[in-house]
Amino acid sequence: MDPGLAGGIAVLDFGGQYAHLICRRVRALQVYAALVPHWTPLAELKEAGVAGVILSGGPSSVYAPGAPAADPEIFEGNVPVLGICYGYQLLVKAHGGEVAGAGRREYGRTRVRVSDGDRLFEGVGGEELAVWMSHSDSATKIPASMRVLAASEASPFAAVRLLGGEQYGVQFHPEVSHTDKGERLLSNFVLGVCGAERKWSMLGFLQRSVEELSRLDGRVLCAVSGGVDSTVTAAILSKAVGDRLRCVFIDTGLLRAGEKEKVEGVLRRGLGLNVAFVDASERFLGALDGVADPEEKRRVVGKTFADAFEEFAREEGPFEHLAQGTLYPDVIESGRSTGPAAVIKTHHNVGGLPAGLSMRVVEPLRELYKDEVRELGGLLGLPEEAMKRHPFPGPGLAVRVLGEVTPEKLRVSREASRIVEEVLEEDGAYSDAWQAFAYVGDDKVTGVLGDERTYGFQVVVKVVESVDGMTADWSRLSSGTLEKISTRITNEVQGAVAVAYNISSKPPATIEPQ
Asked: Which of 149, 320, 375, 504 is deepest in the core (most CB within 10 A)?
């Protein structure tokens, strides 16, 4: 058991997409939190000195055979408990309530009416809150030992408390940024109910990371892409291992416009890092030839990356370690958390790397989220411009091209995405967005250019707002900004004749189309 959990919060992992995000939110309160397997015994948690326990969400149904469960003693009242979504349903079921498939599912923003202030909702304010729901099952009956604190239209028992004990349950997700006052609700539980100790800081994390990484033996090869994650990874390793670090930038042919030049400016000229540039575009595009399935694309890109790294290591090595800028959202969406998480999409740097890699993988940021990484970048003194760049998927434009990857669709997506970013910069909306890009598939529509009929691509633009990438909402861009984007794409991108705007949130959608 993690010794840092003394006075902190243990988050039992039932495989929910937001499980580790709960830890992130608790850390924002300067309280240490760690994700632990859902079967961890209460005796072990108490021996570690935890101040409280949070039960995460999960993809299973509590009434299904073999559904993941917690140690029954956790519900006996000896330690404060907060159940979230699946964890809430476990709490209700453990005390004699009933859970079943809901007649009406709830995904995305929902309004709940707070009927009982209690300690959990202290200072939250108002009788109605906008919260984030993501469930198909609901509590259909709660035991007499519980009282209702809040309800929604589809969930009459949206928040409950066990009478005579410090055990709470909420059907919604207070840990996601789209729940109003979610941080205050977690603070009420963590600091108010549990009395947890405030001893966590990002500076402390940085110091510990540098110290641990400095103990690595041999040389380290760091994969860099120019994005926030790999840039911060390279900067931390540079502090830790000095001239034992070598960085390599692989041009996959799937990159944003002008990516190589930006990388060279930030890493080589700005930070003075030793960076090698390898053009492997033909290798990647050849490996993707004829591949249309999204998961297969990600696996192909991951394997091709590994092959390119291995080849570079043979020529320029030896290297004992391969460092990557993997973040926790990559891990959880790939189904690689401590709990029974569902695979949403395999990230090339998590599920795509083959077994038998000659180098040991090093991932200093594996437990962090994008906003935390940007904070780390600030502590490291990295350029603000580099830290504000929008995320870009590791498989690159391969996942922004629906269906088979072709040079024409790559060109349309690349040029259209550049226009989207330029217009947002011009209109002062770039920094408000989490991600902004254009994607294209095989669908073609009829258009009119001049006086002639034409037949070309329908480009889809997506701009979302988020804090950590685990949830996201579509950006309400002005009609003027949308008009500029559409006009420029249809005027400047050869083959594009129509533009659509994607207004789906995450969930139910994901940010990237594939």
From this structure: 149
